[in-house]
Design brief:
Strand content: 25-35%
Number of strands: 15
CATH architecture of the largest domain: Alpha-Beta Complex
Shape: globular
Bound molecules: NADP nicotinamide-adenine-dinucleotide phosphate
Distance between the termini: 13 Å
Radius of gyration: 20 Å
CATH superfamily of the largest domain: Medium-chain alcohol dehydrogenases, catalytic domain
CATH topology of the largest domain: Quinone Oxidoreductase, Chain A, domain 1
Helix content: 25-40%
Number of domains: 2
Length: 326
Amino acid sequence: MEAIIRTGDGGPEVLQLSEVPAPKPTATQLLVDVHATALNRADLIQRRGGYPPPPGDADILGLEIAGTVAAVGRAVEGVSEGDRVFGLVGGGGYAAQAVIDYRMAMPIPDGWRFEEAAAVPEVFFTANENIFTLGELAAGEAILIHAGGSGVGTAGIQISHHAGANVFVTAGTSGKIHKCKTLGAIEGINYKTADFVAEIEHLTGGEGVDVVLDFIGAPYLEQNLSILKTKGRLLQVGLIGGATAEIDLGTLMRKRLKIIGSVMRPQSIDEKIAITQRFVDQWLPELKNGTLKPVIDSVFPLAEARQAHTYMEANRNFGKIILKLK
Ligand SMILES: NC(=O)c1ccc[n+]([C@@H]2O[C@H](COP(=O)([O-])OP(=O)(O)OC[C@H]3O[C@@H](n4cnc5c(N)ncnc54)[C@H](OP(=O)(O)O)[C@@H]3O)[C@@H](O)[C@H]2O)c1
Protein backbone atom coordinates (compact mmCIF):
# COMPACT_ATOMS: atom_id res chain seq x y z
CA MET A 1 0.00 0.00 0.00
CA GLU A 2 1.02 3.64 -0.32
CA ALA A 3 2.13 5.41 2.84
CA ILE A 4 4.20 8.34 3.96
CA ILE A 5 7.32 7.02 5.66
CA ARG A 6 10.16 8.80 7.43
CA THR A 7 13.55 8.34 5.82
CA GLY A 8 15.17 9.61 9.07
CA ASP A 9 14.58 12.11 11.87
CA GLY A 10 14.36 15.70 10.72
CA GLY A 11 12.44 18.35 8.79
CA PRO A 12 9.59 17.84 6.33
CA GLU A 13 12.11 16.57 3.73
CA VAL A 14 12.34 13.22 5.58
CA LEU A 15 8.72 12.46 4.64
CA GLN A 16 8.43 10.32 1.54
CA LEU A 17 5.62 8.54 -0.28
CA SER A 18 6.52 4.84 -0.49
CA GLU A 19 5.11 1.34 -0.90
CA VAL A 20 4.93 -0.58 2.41
CA PRO A 21 3.16 -3.78 3.52
CA ALA A 22 -0.47 -3.24 4.59
CA PRO A 23 -1.25 -3.85 8.30
CA LYS A 24 -3.15 -6.99 9.35
CA PRO A 25 -6.09 -6.57 11.74
CA THR A 26 -6.05 -8.52 15.03
CA ALA A 27 -9.22 -10.24 16.29
CA THR A 28 -10.65 -6.97 17.64
CA GLN A 29 -9.47 -4.64 14.87
CA LEU A 30 -10.88 -3.32 11.63
CA LEU A 31 -8.78 -2.87 8.52
CA VAL A 32 -9.81 0.49 7.09
CA ASP A 33 -9.29 1.91 3.60
CA VAL A 34 -8.24 5.41 4.66
CA HIS A 35 -9.92 8.22 2.70
CA ALA A 36 -8.69 11.06 4.91
CA THR A 37 -6.40 11.62 7.86
CA ALA A 38 -5.27 14.81 9.60
CA LEU A 39 -2.14 16.46 10.91
CA ASN A 40 -1.51 17.02 14.58
CA ARG A 41 1.28 19.00 16.21
CA ALA A 42 2.55 15.72 17.64
CA ASP A 43 3.29 14.52 14.08
CA LEU A 44 5.96 17.22 13.79
CA ILE A 45 7.59 15.96 17.00
CA GLN A 46 7.43 12.33 15.82
CA ARG A 47 8.89 13.33 12.45
CA ARG A 48 11.88 14.80 14.29
CA GLY A 49 12.36 11.55 16.24
CA GLY A 50 10.31 12.15 19.43
CA TYR A 51 6.85 11.05 20.60
CA PRO A 52 7.07 7.35 19.67
CA PRO A 53 3.92 5.30 19.01
CA PRO A 54 2.75 2.98 21.81
CA PRO A 55 4.06 -0.62 21.53
CA GLY A 56 2.11 -2.54 18.87
CA ASP A 57 0.98 0.58 16.99
CA ALA A 58 2.27 1.54 13.53
CA ASP A 59 5.44 3.62 13.27
CA ILE A 60 3.80 5.54 10.39
CA LEU A 61 2.59 9.05 11.35
CA GLY A 62 -1.12 9.83 11.70
CA LEU A 63 -3.30 9.76 14.82
CA GLU A 64 -6.78 9.74 13.28
CA ILE A 65 -8.52 8.25 10.28
CA ALA A 66 -11.76 8.34 8.32
CA GLY A 67 -12.50 5.68 5.73
CA THR A 68 -14.38 2.50 4.81
CA VAL A 69 -14.02 -0.89 6.48
CA ALA A 70 -12.08 -3.31 4.22
CA ALA A 71 -11.95 -6.29 6.61
CA VAL A 72 -12.95 -7.16 10.19
CA GLY A 73 -11.18 -9.28 12.84
CA ARG A 74 -12.97 -12.45 14.01
CA ALA A 75 -14.10 -11.00 17.37
CA VAL A 76 -15.49 -7.77 15.92
CA GLU A 77 -19.17 -7.10 16.59
CA GLY A 78 -21.56 -4.64 14.97
CA VAL A 79 -19.30 -3.42 12.16
CA SER A 80 -19.27 -4.75 8.58
CA GLU A 81 -17.15 -4.41 5.48
CA GLY A 82 -18.04 -1.24 3.60
CA ASP A 83 -19.13 0.72 6.72
CA ARG A 84 -17.88 4.32 6.90
CA VAL A 85 -15.97 4.83 10.15
CA PHE A 86 -13.72 7.35 11.83
CA GLY A 87 -11.65 7.38 15.00
CA LEU A 88 -8.42 7.73 16.90
CA VAL A 89 -5.45 5.46 16.14
CA GLY A 90 -2.11 5.04 17.92
CA GLY A 91 -0.34 5.65 14.58
CA GLY A 92 -0.57 4.68 10.93
CA GLY A 93 -2.98 7.30 9.57
CA TYR A 94 -0.76 8.56 6.72
CA ALA A 95 -1.38 5.37 4.73
CA ALA A 96 -3.83 3.81 2.30
CA GLN A 97 -4.87 1.30 4.98
CA ALA A 98 -4.79 1.41 8.77
CA VAL A 99 -6.10 -0.70 11.66
CA ILE A 100 -8.32 0.50 14.48
CA ASP A 101 -9.92 -1.30 17.45
CA TYR A 102 -13.59 -1.69 16.54
CA ARG A 103 -14.65 -0.22 19.89
CA MET A 104 -12.90 3.03 18.96
CA ALA A 105 -14.36 3.22 15.45
CA MET A 106 -17.37 5.53 15.23
CA PRO A 107 -19.87 5.48 12.35
CA ILE A 108 -19.43 8.57 10.16
CA PRO A 109 -22.63 10.64 10.41
CA ASP A 110 -24.78 10.68 7.25
CA GLY A 111 -23.91 13.54 4.95
CA TRP A 112 -20.41 14.04 6.34
CA ARG A 113 -17.43 14.03 4.02
CA PHE A 114 -14.42 11.92 5.05
CA GLU A 115 -12.39 15.14 5.50
CA GLU A 116 -14.85 16.41 8.10
CA ALA A 117 -14.75 13.12 10.03
CA ALA A 118 -10.93 13.05 9.97
CA ALA A 119 -10.83 16.55 11.51
CA VAL A 120 -12.62 15.51 14.70
CA PRO A 121 -11.18 12.72 16.91
CA GLU A 122 -7.81 13.93 18.22
CA VAL A 123 -8.78 17.52 18.92
CA PHE A 124 -12.30 16.98 20.26
CA PHE A 125 -11.18 14.07 22.46
CA THR A 126 -8.24 16.10 23.81
CA ALA A 127 -10.37 19.16 24.45
CA ASN A 128 -13.17 17.19 26.13
CA GLU A 129 -10.89 15.07 28.33
CA ASN A 130 -8.92 18.05 29.54
CA ILE A 131 -11.51 20.76 29.83
CA PHE A 132 -14.34 18.64 31.24
CA THR A 133 -13.20 15.19 32.46
CA LEU A 134 -10.05 16.52 34.16
CA GLY A 135 -10.66 20.28 34.35
CA GLU A 136 -14.34 20.04 35.41
CA LEU A 137 -15.24 23.31 33.70
CA ALA A 138 -18.76 24.35 34.70
CA ALA A 139 -21.33 26.70 33.18
CA GLY A 140 -20.65 30.30 34.19
CA GLU A 141 -16.95 29.68 34.78
CA ALA A 142 -14.21 31.38 32.76
CA ILE A 143 -11.56 29.57 30.72
CA LEU A 144 -8.45 30.83 28.94
CA ILE A 145 -7.47 28.69 25.96
CA HIS A 146 -3.97 29.39 24.68
CA ALA A 147 -3.29 28.95 20.95
CA GLY A 148 -7.00 29.38 20.26
CA GLY A 149 -6.42 28.85 16.55
CA SER A 150 -4.84 25.43 17.01
CA GLY A 151 -6.82 22.32 16.17
CA VAL A 152 -7.34 21.61 19.87
CA GLY A 153 -8.11 25.28 20.51
CA THR A 154 -10.87 25.45 17.90
CA ALA A 155 -12.55 22.37 19.43
CA GLY A 156 -12.03 23.64 22.98
CA ILE A 157 -13.56 27.05 22.26
CA GLN A 158 -16.69 25.48 20.80
CA ILE A 159 -17.37 22.93 23.52
CA SER A 160 -16.58 25.37 26.36
CA HIS A 161 -18.85 28.02 24.88
CA HIS A 162 -21.59 25.47 24.27
CA ALA A 163 -21.33 24.38 27.92
CA GLY A 164 -22.02 27.94 29.05
CA ALA A 165 -18.48 29.01 30.00
CA ASN A 166 -16.91 32.39 29.24
CA VAL A 167 -14.09 31.70 26.81
CA PHE A 168 -10.95 33.80 26.36
CA VAL A 169 -8.16 32.90 23.97
CA THR A 170 -4.65 33.89 23.00
CA ALA A 171 -3.41 33.71 19.42
CA GLY A 172 -0.60 35.14 17.34
CA THR A 173 -2.60 37.10 14.75
CA SER A 174 -5.68 39.32 14.73
CA GLY A 175 -7.11 37.14 11.95
CA LYS A 176 -7.01 34.06 14.19
CA ILE A 177 -8.55 36.03 17.08
CA HIS A 178 -11.41 37.15 14.85
CA LYS A 179 -12.09 33.54 13.83
CA CYS A 180 -11.92 32.36 17.47
CA LYS A 181 -14.70 34.84 18.26
CA THR A 182 -16.88 33.37 15.52
CA LEU A 183 -16.52 30.01 17.32
CA GLY A 184 -17.68 31.45 20.65
CA ALA A 185 -14.73 33.18 22.30
CA ILE A 186 -15.71 36.41 24.10
CA GLU A 187 -12.34 38.05 23.61
CA GLY A 188 -8.91 37.23 22.24
CA ILE A 189 -5.45 38.46 23.16
CA ASN A 190 -2.64 38.72 20.64
CA TYR A 191 0.21 37.32 22.73
CA LYS A 192 2.76 38.87 20.37
CA THR A 193 1.61 42.43 21.04
CA ALA A 194 -0.03 42.29 24.49
CA ASP A 195 0.61 40.88 27.96
CA PHE A 196 -2.04 38.20 28.43
CA VAL A 197 -1.90 38.43 32.24
CA ALA A 198 -2.72 42.15 32.23
CA GLU A 199 -5.38 41.64 29.55
CA ILE A 200 -7.12 38.80 31.41
CA GLU A 201 -7.13 40.87 34.61
CA HIS A 202 -8.67 43.73 32.70
CA LEU A 203 -11.23 41.58 30.88
CA THR A 204 -12.35 39.77 34.05
CA GLY A 205 -12.42 42.84 36.30
CA GLY A 206 -9.41 41.49 38.22
CA GLU A 207 -11.06 38.14 38.99
CA GLY A 208 -9.05 35.88 36.69
CA VAL A 209 -10.20 32.57 35.21
CA ASP A 210 -11.22 29.19 36.60
CA VAL A 211 -9.44 27.05 34.01
CA VAL A 212 -6.43 27.51 31.72
CA LEU A 213 -5.80 25.12 28.81
CA ASP A 214 -2.11 25.46 27.99
CA PHE A 215 0.12 24.06 25.25
CA ILE A 216 3.07 26.41 25.71
CA GLY A 217 4.47 25.07 28.99
CA ALA A 218 7.47 26.49 30.82
CA PRO A 219 7.40 30.14 29.66
CA TYR A 220 3.72 30.49 30.63
CA LEU A 221 3.60 28.50 33.88
CA GLU A 222 4.00 31.33 36.36
CA GLN A 223 1.68 33.63 34.38
CA ASN A 224 -0.96 30.92 34.06
CA LEU A 225 -0.97 30.34 37.83
CA SER A 226 -1.16 34.07 38.47
CA ILE A 227 -4.43 34.48 36.54
CA LEU A 228 -6.19 31.47 38.09
CA LYS A 229 -8.89 32.14 40.66
CA THR A 230 -8.98 30.27 43.97
CA LYS A 231 -9.51 26.55 43.21
CA GLY A 232 -8.49 27.14 39.59
CA ARG A 233 -7.24 24.35 37.33
CA LEU A 234 -4.32 24.46 34.89
CA LEU A 235 -4.47 21.77 32.21
CA GLN A 236 -1.02 21.14 30.77
CA VAL A 237 -1.48 19.51 27.39
CA GLY A 238 1.53 20.63 25.33
CA LEU A 239 5.04 21.96 25.79
CA ILE A 240 5.61 24.00 22.62
CA GLY A 241 7.71 26.55 24.55
CA GLY A 242 9.62 24.21 26.88
CA ALA A 243 9.23 21.68 29.72
CA THR A 244 11.21 22.92 32.71
CA ALA A 245 10.16 25.84 34.90
CA GLU A 246 10.30 27.06 38.46
CA ILE A 247 7.19 28.09 40.37
CA ASP A 248 6.30 29.50 43.74
CA LEU A 249 4.53 26.60 45.42
CA GLY A 250 3.09 29.12 47.87
CA THR A 251 0.79 30.34 45.10
CA LEU A 252 -0.44 26.78 44.58
CA MET A 253 -1.19 26.37 48.28
CA ARG A 254 -2.69 29.80 48.90
CA LYS A 255 -5.09 29.57 45.95
CA ARG A 256 -5.66 25.79 46.26
CA LEU A 257 -4.80 25.31 42.60
CA LYS A 258 -4.52 22.11 40.62
CA ILE A 259 -2.00 21.53 37.83
CA ILE A 260 -3.08 18.54 35.75
CA GLY A 261 -1.01 17.09 32.93
CA SER A 262 -2.00 14.43 30.42
CA VAL A 263 -1.04 12.82 27.13
CA MET A 264 -3.61 10.76 25.24
CA ARG A 265 -1.45 8.64 22.93
CA PRO A 266 0.23 6.26 25.44
CA GLN A 267 -3.00 5.47 27.30
CA SER A 268 -4.35 1.89 27.25
CA ILE A 269 -6.94 0.71 24.73
CA ASP A 270 -9.52 0.51 27.53
CA GLU A 271 -8.84 4.13 28.48
CA LYS A 272 -9.07 5.23 24.84
CA ILE A 273 -12.35 3.35 24.38
CA ALA A 274 -13.69 5.23 27.41
CA ILE A 275 -12.40 8.54 25.99
CA THR A 276 -14.13 7.77 22.68
CA GLN A 277 -17.40 6.89 24.47
CA ARG A 278 -17.40 10.09 26.52
CA PHE A 279 -17.02 12.08 23.29
CA VAL A 280 -19.78 10.07 21.56
CA ASP A 281 -22.17 10.64 24.47
CA GLN A 282 -21.36 14.28 25.08
CA TRP A 283 -20.42 15.93 21.78
CA LEU A 284 -21.13 13.77 18.73
CA PRO A 285 -24.86 14.64 18.80
CA GLU A 286 -23.95 18.36 18.76
CA LEU A 287 -21.62 17.81 15.81
CA LYS A 288 -24.29 15.80 14.00
CA ASN A 289 -26.91 18.52 14.41
CA GLY A 290 -24.49 21.25 13.34
CA THR A 291 -24.28 23.10 16.66
CA LEU A 292 -20.55 22.31 16.69
CA LYS A 293 -18.41 21.88 13.61
CA PRO A 294 -15.10 20.43 12.60
CA VAL A 295 -12.88 23.39 11.70
CA ILE A 296 -10.92 22.59 8.54
CA ASP A 297 -8.19 24.97 7.48
CA SER A 298 -6.90 23.19 4.38
CA VAL A 299 -6.78 19.88 2.52
CA PHE A 300 -3.59 18.47 0.99
CA PRO A 301 -3.21 15.26 -1.03
CA LEU A 302 -1.30 12.59 0.92
CA ALA A 303 1.60 12.93 -1.51
CA GLU A 304 2.01 16.54 -0.33
CA ALA A 305 2.52 15.66 3.35
CA ARG A 306 5.81 17.59 3.28
CA GLN A 307 4.07 20.79 2.24
CA ALA A 308 1.37 20.21 4.87
CA HIS A 309 4.02 19.84 7.60
CA THR A 310 5.83 22.98 6.46
CA TYR A 311 2.53 24.85 6.58
CA MET A 312 1.74 23.67 10.14
CA GLU A 313 5.27 24.39 11.32
CA ALA A 314 4.85 27.99 10.13
CA ASN A 315 1.74 28.25 12.39
CA ARG A 316 -0.38 29.20 9.38
CA ASN A 317 -3.37 26.94 10.08
CA PHE A 318 -6.56 27.86 11.90
CA GLY A 319 -8.05 24.48 12.83
CA LYS A 320 -7.24 21.24 11.07
CA ILE A 321 -5.00 20.38 8.14
CA ILE A 322 -6.36 17.33 6.32
CA LEU A 323 -4.50 14.80 4.18
CA LYS A 324 -6.79 13.33 1.55
CA LEU A 325 -6.17 9.94 0.00
CA LYS A 326 -9.25 9.34 -2.15
N1 LIG B 1 -1.60 15.92 25.56
C1 LIG B 1 -2.33 15.47 24.56
O1 LIG B 1 -2.94 14.40 24.65
C2 LIG B 1 -2.44 16.27 23.31
C3 LIG B 1 -3.28 15.86 22.27
C4 LIG B 1 -3.39 16.67 21.13
C5 LIG B 1 -2.65 17.84 21.06
N2 LIG B 1 -1.83 18.18 22.08
C6 LIG B 1 -1.03 19.41 22.04
O2 LIG B 1 -1.92 20.47 21.81
C7 LIG B 1 -1.23 21.51 21.12
C8 LIG B 1 -2.03 21.90 19.93
O3 LIG B 1 -2.00 20.85 18.98
P1 LIG B 1 -2.63 21.07 17.54
O4 LIG B 1 -2.33 19.87 16.73
O5 LIG B 1 -4.02 21.49 17.72
O6 LIG B 1 -1.71 22.33 17.08
P2 LIG B 1 -1.69 23.26 15.80
O7 LIG B 1 -2.98 23.18 15.06
O8 LIG B 1 -0.40 23.01 15.11
O9 LIG B 1 -1.62 24.73 16.46
C9 LIG B 1 -0.56 25.11 17.27
C10 LIG B 1 -0.57 26.65 17.37
O10 LIG B 1 0.19 27.04 18.50
C11 LIG B 1 0.64 28.37 18.32
N3 LIG B 1 2.03 28.46 18.74
C12 LIG B 1 3.09 27.84 18.18
N4 LIG B 1 4.21 28.13 18.84
C13 LIG B 1 3.86 28.96 19.86
C14 LIG B 1 4.56 29.61 20.91
N5 LIG B 1 5.87 29.46 21.08
N6 LIG B 1 3.85 30.37 21.77
C15 LIG B 1 2.51 30.53 21.65
N7 LIG B 1 1.79 29.93 20.67
C16 LIG B 1 2.45 29.16 19.79
C17 LIG B 1 0.49 28.70 16.83
O11 LIG B 1 -0.59 29.60 16.66
P3 LIG B 1 -0.38 31.19 16.74
O12 LIG B 1 -0.41 31.69 15.32
O13 LIG B 1 -1.53 31.67 17.54
O14 LIG B 1 0.95 31.45 17.38
C18 LIG B 1 0.12 27.34 16.22
O15 LIG B 1 -0.69 27.48 15.07
C19 LIG B 1 0.16 20.97 20.79
O16 LIG B 1 1.06 21.41 21.78
C20 LIG B 1 -0.04 19.48 20.89
O17 LIG B 1 1.14 18.79 21.18
C21 LIG B 1 -1.72 17.43 23.19
